[in-house]
Amino acid sequence: MELSKKQVFTEEFYQNIGMLFYAIAASDKVVQAEEIKTLNNLVQKKWVPIDNKTDEYGTDEAYKIEMVFDWLEENSPEATWAFKEFRQYKKENEGLFTLPIKQLIWETADAIAASFAGKNKSELIMLSKLKMLLSK
Hints:
Layout: H1 11-26, H2 33-47, H3 64-75, H4 79-92, H5 99-114, H6 121-135
């Protein structure tokens, strides 16, 4: 799957992706160090390369995924709230969610859920909700 660098994603896009990944990791009420490590690794390897956009400090916008995830982890909102926020954003911005982006979202979410002792029931439920949302 090759993603085009032509598509430019906004800071808001990456913030909402970060919310989604937090929802997956926090669905079982505990964000594990392995889940954070997996997220950071995938942001670096898969998300940074899809977009040339940087912020005013020259930081790739894709790192907003990690920043939002970290902020949410520190503040511990409900995973369901974060998922609903993402769902609403997706509904309002369907054009951004091309097939390659949906595949990348799925691969990242699935890897986060699997990174610590496999997927538990809470994560499987959240992943199934995501799968339905991405198939729309």
